[in-house]
Amino acid sequence: MGYLTRRLVTFPLVLIGVSILVFVAIRLVPGDSITAMLGTEAGLLTPQQRVALTAYFGLDQNWLVQYWHWLLGLFRGDLGISVAYGKPVLDVILDRFPLTLELAFLSMIIALAVGLPAGVFAATHNGRPSDLAVRIFAMIGQSTPSFVVGLLIIYVLSVGFGALPTMGEFSPFWQDPLRNLSQLIFPAITLGLAFAASVTRISRSAMLDVLSDDYVRTARSKGAPARSVIWRHALPNALIPVVTLSGMEFGYLLGGAVLVEKIYALPGLGRVVLDAILQRDYALLQGSVLFIAFNFMVVNLLVDLAYSALDPRIRLGER
Amino acid sequence: MSPFLSVRDLRVGFGRDPEINPVVRGVSFDVAAGETLAIVGESGSGKSVTVLSINRLVDFGGGRIVSGSIKLTRADNSILDLTAATELQLTKVRGAEIGMIFQEPMTSLNPVLSIGSQIEESFRLHRGLTGKQAHAAAKDALDRVRIPDALRRLNYYPNQLSGGMLQRVMIATALACNSRLLIADEPTTALDVTVQAQIMALLAELKRETGMSMIFITHDIGLVAGIADRVMVMQNGLAVEQGELNQILDRPQHPYTQHLLHAVPHFASGQAARTDGKRSSEAAPAVPALRVDGLTVRFPVTSGIFRRPAGAVHAVEGVDFDLMPGETLAIVGESGSGKSTTARAILGLTKSTRGTFSAITQETSARRSQRPVQMVFQNPYASLNPRLSVESILAEPVIAAGGRLDGRTRERMSMLIERVGLPINSLDRYPHEFSGGQRQRLCIARALMLNPAVVVLDEAVSALDVSVQAKVLELLVDLQREFNLAYLFISHDMAVVERIAHRIAVMYAGQIVEIGRAAAVLANPQHSYTQRLIAAVPTVSRRKEHFELDTRQVPSLVRRLGFEPGPADWTHFGADHKARAEAPTHLQTAG
């Protein structure tokens, strides 16, 4: 398949571009990782100690050499050592990634399960009070920041039910599914609500467009009942923008959700990136951004493949 | 015997208060079993709304039947008033007893479902067929509309078939369950003339085979003559006249019917061609306004990861012609023949692969602008920027050519606005305030702002109603005489071409196959394609004619790399009329 091959060829090129960008950007920020790592104790370092530490992390070489070493390491699957966590970068990322991936999945499922039916419902009731109600909810959902929703959920849970979302040590799904879900369900709802609101709005407008298309009229002229007109004839044609949006949001969520992770005390990827920036942890930042960019590109590729599955007019081979 | 379908005093309105401003204002008609009723009228006359009310699809477009009755005799001889039917009853009538086909076959089929599954749907809905049975029934339905290789085509998606094929699929779907009434809403308007003739032939044959009734909507009275038993003429939501076909066509009573019949350009096999051509007269100018020599446009076809060129689409191949000032050359041919690509190449909108064209300004450059070729497009609704005032629209070409919006420009604007027959206060207004015909006048004024030598008119009157069309054609002829303009007039409508062209070039598969004086080409076509094209033109005089079904298709224009066609071999017929000699394999037979 020509398209896929071409995409796979561009993959590493984009990743190298991203890595160069991050590499340069973090080094342009004032401050150094040794000072950031040691905090106030950095003042106690003798110049010799500082030089030794800098050399230990390889930060004394010029940028080109540093980048080259990092690139070589990359090919061996070695992303370097995190100054902030004191562990190999890859370990830090892989520790956090399952949670972020699961959270993103749950949010997307919630968003599609709520948003798609709501959008279709609003479109088929266009102009009626029920449509207006859905649109108002969607507007509110989209414009409320996630931390507000998160805090509200915690407030309602604690004041209304005297309970808190399960916090503490994160348990992966394969170890304790029940505890895992009880930890993630509320964060997922928090992230999923805004996501659902976007899905609602975009599926409503796409459905409205499609419902006035000629082939929908044809379907009706054949005697197809309303249910079949909406779900069989109209919806598949309205899915392209929904898939685009969902892919994009999902891709962002794979980069972590700092605020929600913070509120629910979850060890996700978002906080790793934040820590890496705050602590000038060059290796960690480079590694995690590269990882996130890679995921984003995989998601985009899947979205493109989904297009061709949804619409026979989109032939990926010929363009 | 009571009629099969009886519509009485139908009134239909739209919007919040449909009774205030009805679009259909009291229409009554009957359709007997096996009869074809043609409804004729211009856009906005309410003809589509009338038929959409019969199967109540009008409900989904925001319309409401205000009063009246539509009584349908069902298969079991019970009578159902469709205006009072429930949605559940209606879904049993639609598709099963009333089938419908639409104007745009390209958009009327669902792009994400295969042809087969869309036909099968009718059988599933009304016959309860599933799986293999439905599949077999769908194949039979495609066979019935004479689609070659039906079994394979079932798996095709709509984008893989041509417009004519898709309209056949639509017909197959509409008639899948042996509907006794077929509503055809301008079913051939979007198709080429030769394809139109085939669809009309198919409809006539199916009617004979099944004995179905048909309501046929059209704005083309020429088509009516070919298929209808009875005709109803609509204007402003009223049926102004109805009766037997011959009575309406030969002895129209209502002034509007007379006007319609008069306004329609009747194709007269070259007898109505213009005689004011410059070529024949003694004082023929020696210098053409436009000379095209060996124009070739090819689009590369690539394959593989590295996009190696694998061949080329030979869209336009070695086209030569010249165009004198004050002369109209019409380029006719069907979609895909390369006529629009030729025009686009001359304007520089498409890059030509080879060949030269030069627009020669024989007058001093002070009078003729540096941009001697201007264009008027087909769709006046889409070719004017809705956010610009008429003044800005007219100033655009001047500014683009490096001029300024000064007193002289404004003077020319006012002159042209008046000249194309628009009110002088039009300059401050916006395109949406104008009707389709007025917009096309605006486009013409815009094209004339730079005082061009050549105006390319690409299907410039095709989107207009017949009476508007006639007036715009008149205007074009007047302007041509006044400004000594050369027109390159691209059209598929032979009757229109006959009225405006001095010379005609017939394009087929990217090449000119016949060119010459309009009267000669139309009266005495030499190339087999020209003959087919002219035979396909519906005329009022040919009544109930039997069209031959023809499944020939335009040959593929994709050629392998480095392919060069042989030199053209022309046969001359008279002073200004020649046709390309035909190779035996030139017209391929498909299936």
From TrEMBL, chain A:
Any idea where this protein resides? Cell membrane
User: Is the keyword Glycosyltransferase assigned to this protein?
Assistant: no
| Major location (coarse) | membrane
Lipid bilayer topology: Multi-pass membrane protein
What are the GO MF terms of this UniProt record?
dipeptide transmembrane transporter activity
Please tell me whether the keyword Transmembrane helix is annotated for this protein. yes
Task: Report domain ABC transmembrane type-1 positions.
Answer: 97-307
Q: Which InterPro entries match?
A: BPD_transp_1_N (IPR045621), MetI-like (IPR000515), MetI-like_sf (IPR035906)
Q: Which GO terms describe its cellular component?
A: plasma membrane
Q: Which domain of life is it from?
A: Bacteria
Q: Which UniProt keywords apply?
A: Cell membrane, Membrane, Transmembrane, Transmembrane helix, Transport
Q: Which family does it belong to?
A: Belongs to the binding-protein-dependent transport system permease family.
From the Swiss-Prot or TrEMBL record, give the protein name: Glutathione ABC transporter permease GsiC
Origin species: Phyllobacterium myrsinacearum
Automatic annotation (TrEMBL), chain B:
All copies of domain ABC transporter, residue ranges: 7-261, 290-534
- A GO MF term: ATP hydrolysis activity
GO BP terms: peptide transport; transmembrane transport
Q: Where in the cell is it found?
A: Cell inner membrane
Q: Output the Pfam families linked to this UniProt entry.
A: ABC_tran, oligo_HPY
Q: Which residues form a coiled coil?
A: none
Supply the alphabetized keyword list: ATP-binding, Cell membrane, Membrane, Nucleotide-binding, Transport
- Main localization of the protein described in the UniProt heading: membrane
Asked if the keyword Lyase belongs to this entry, the reply reads: no
Q: Which GO terms describe its cellular component?
A: plasma membrane
Q: Which domain of life is it from?
A: Bacteria
Q: How does it sit in the membrane?
A: Peripheral membrane protein
Keyword Transit peptide included in the entry's annotation: no
Q: Which InterPro entries match?
A: AAA+_ATPase (IPR003593), ABC_Ni/Peptide_Import (IPR050388), ABC_transporter-like_ATP-bd (IPR003439), ABC_transporter-like_CS (IPR017871), Oligopep_ABC_C (IPR013563), P-loop_NTPase (IPR027417)
User: Which Gene3D superfamilies does the annotation name?
Assistant: P-loop containing nucleotide triphosphate hydrolases (3.40.50.300)
Q: By its UniProt entry, which PANTHER family does this protein fall under?
A: DIPEPTIDE TRANSPORT ATP-BINDING PROTEIN DPPD, OLIGOPEPTIDE TRANSPORT ATP-BINDING PROTEIN APPD
Q: Which NCBIfam families match?
A: PRK11308.1
Provide the family line.
Answer: Belongs to the ABC transporter superfamily.
Q: What is this protein called?
A: ABC transporter ATP-binding protein
Q: To which species is this protein native?
A: Phyllobacterium myrsinacearum
